[in-house]
Amino acid sequence: MAGIRLAPEDPELSSQQSRGAVVSDLISDDERSVAADSWSIKSEYGSTLDDDQRQTDAADALSAANFPPAPSSDYSSDKEEVEAEEAVQSMLGLQSYWDSAYADELTNFREHGHAGEVWFGADVMELVASWTKGLCIDISHGQLPNHVDDTKSELVDQGDKYLSTWSVLDIGTGNGLLLQELAKQGFSHLTGTDYSEGAVQLARSLADRDGFANINFLVDDVLETKLERQFQLVMDKGTLDAIGLHPDGPVKRCSSSF
C-alpha cells in the first residue's frame, strides 16, 4: 500500500496561527463594547455624535488596538431604529423630559448666558412674528386676512396703534423668545405659559436680561389650565406636538381645549 507523505509543518506559521487563535478567544464581546463606548464622543452640552460617526470612530479604535473585528451580523437594525424613535416620541410627550431639558438650559443660562434653543430657528421666528403683526393689523382694521390694498403700508407704519389692543397668549412658551420677538413688533399685552417651572424661570430671566420685563410668564398646563381670562390671540409653536407624542396622546388631544 502506498504511503501518504504530509508536507513538513512550518513551526513559525503554526506558532503565529496558534497565538492568533488565543488572542481571538481571549477578547470578549464585552471588551469590544467597552472600546466602542469609549469613543462615543459627546459635545459640550452632552449630545452624542451621529451613529455613523460613532461606528467609524469605534472601528478605528478597535483597529488601533489590534482587536479583531466583530463578526458581521445579518440582524437588521430597523427594529432598533423604530424602538429608538418610539422612545424619543414618548419622552417628548412627558413633562419630566421637559423639566430635565429646561433645568439644563437654565444652568447653561446662569453659567454661560446662553438663551437656549430657538424652535425652528431665528429666521422662522422673526418671519412668524412679522406675519402675525400684519395679520392682527388687518383684522383690527376690519380687513380679511391676506387682503391687499393701497392702505396696507400705511397700516403697518401705524401698527403700534392697532397692536396695543391685542392680548396675546403663547402656550408652551419655553424660553419665551417668541414673545420677545412679538414685543419688538409692537405687541404689549403678552403672556407666556408652560407646565415646566424651569422653562418659566428661564423665560423670566431672559426677558429681564433683554429688557422685556413687561412680558408676563406663568406656570400652567393648557390641558388643566387655571387661567380665567381670555386672549384675543393664542399661539402655539410645539405644544400640540408634545401632546400628540404623549403615550396617551389620542386621549389628550381629544381633551385639549385650544
Automatic annotation (TrEMBL):
Region (Disordered): 1-27, 45-79
Domain of life: Eukaryota
Gene3D superfamilies named in the record: Vaccinia Virus protein VP39 (3.40.50.150)
A Pfam match: Methyltransf_31
Cellular compartments per GO CC: cytoplasm
Transmembrane segments: none
Methyltransferase domain span: 167-244
SUPFAM superfamilies: S-adenosyl-L-methionine-dependent methyltransferases
GO molecular-function terms, A-Z: protein-lysine N-methyltransferase activity
Name of the molecule in the record: Methyltransferase domain-containing protein
Organism expressing this protein natively: Quercus rubra
